[in-house]
What we know:
Chain A is an all-alpha fold. Chain A has eight helices and no strands. In chain A, α3 (about 40-55) packs across α4. Helices cover about 80% and strands about 0% of the residues of chain B. Chain B has helices at about 1-20, 30-40, 45-55, 60-75, 80-110, 110-115, 120-140, 150-165, 170-185. Chain B contains nine helices and no strands.
Amino acid sequence: MKKYWELFLIFFKIGAFTFGGGYAMIPLIRNEVVNKKGWLEEDEFMDMLAIAQSMPGPISLNTALFVGNKRLGFKGGLFSGAGIILPSFVVILLIAMVFTQFKENPVVERVFKGIRPAVVALIVAPLLSLGKSAGVRWKNLWIPVVVELAVWQLSISPIYIVLAAILLGVSHFIYLRKGVKK
Amino acid sequence: MELLELYLALFVAFFKIGLFGFGGVYAMLPLIQHEIVETHQWMTISDFTDIVAISQTTPGPIAFNSATYIGYSAVTEMGFASGYGVVGSAICTFAVSIPSLILMTLATAFFFRLKNNPWIQSALSVLKPAIIGLIASAALILITPYNFIDYKSWIIFGAVLVASIKKVDPILLIFLSGLTGFILY
């Protein structure tokens, strides 16, 4: 039982001290799991990361679930998953309780008038480097452009975009494989 | 009865977000926005922007943060007591995590077969560039008259954009733009 709580505590700590989302957590998880505990080898961690990124869901949760599962099975995954979720759950719940009361407050409203455009800027800023690492080049630039217009202008649900992208990628692969066989 | 229906609708919406939310933090935004703001109208686009701002300054990924927040606010805004809101929070947070829990448990079991699997690689070859499009649309959806009220909004936008590309800490940037808003408006 002690081992399970150790998993919980490690991921609780990581969940409590990383701000701003999933990718910020990765170096911390690697430090704990690879360097300090030696539960995973460096290359094993990198392979795992590639898989965690290609699965749906937040990457920090996926990583926690993988490490917990790998070490102590399904139950281990439950403990590490709960550990990484719990800190943000408590913090956001408290904020929700307070913020829903003070939303109409004129001072809060002024502060958020300044914050809202900043939020959009923070989403735009990493696009270029993310695009490069996602393999966007001139010849496939049409993919993000079409997706963007479909979601923004036509309000098409991103669920259909994800399904269409998977289908297109797989059928292209089948097409190429048939070409090789001939 | 009304409460149970709301709980169920919240559960289904966040389960979908967990299942189809590929590509990390910002790529999930248009999906969350589509379910929460457009389909169910549990909140307005400016409230949604505020949650993104809160997410950027608190621990944890936006998918969890919005689940926890919306679970609470959707229930209390329908007039139910805050205790029911806490339950709503827990339901949404749990729902958004279930797809990950199932898929990652399977992924761990088949780890070595998944590695460099050509089927997964081929699906990702289109999905990855598509995710960039999703992130771009998240930004465009948030450019509304509520979020950009006048030219001052665009000055804040430009300044934060440049500073963020120059790797200035996002929490500091949110704090400074909040201060700017307080002074200017």
